[in-house]
Amino acid sequence: MKTFEFFVLGLLILYLLLSLSENTGVTHMNFVPLGGASWALWLYPLYFFVSFFISASVFRANRWVYVVIFIGFVILFIFWFYALQGHLFDNWRPFGVDAY
């Protein structure tokens, strides 16, 4: 049950970080069919890392859990880079400074 709570808390914190980031305009995820510019998409994997790191700290997880979170972060970052076809850092500044 503790593992389930760990994942739920991690996902909840991740959702809160993503929504806060989108609502304040730090990041913007625009799906390709809708057109327009996206910016600061490299922050999404970092939000994953931070949210599950906080969740692991709350539940006082073992050291191997932190290693798994870091490995998950690296895998997610690589996947996100390839899913966006290398456009991860096109508009890299938060708040859409480079958005065109």
Structural class: mainly alpha
Q: What profile does the largest beta sheet have?
A: none
Continuous helix count: 3
Shape: elongated
Gyration radius, in Å: 15 Å
Q: Distance between the terminal alpha carbons, to the nearest Å?
A: 47 Å
Strand tally: 0
Spans of 5+ residues with little confidence (pLDDT < 50)?
Answer: none
Residue-averaged pLDDT? 85
Helix content: 55-70%
The arrangement of helices and strands along the chain is HHH
Percentage of β-strand residues: under 5%
Features:
3 helices, mainly alpha, 0% strand, 100 residues, single chain
Structure report:
The chain has 100 residues and is mostly helical. The protein has helices at residues 2-24, 43-58, 63-83. The longest helix is centred in the N-terminal third of the chain and has 23 residues, at 2-24. The model has no long low-confidence stretch (mean pLDDT 85).
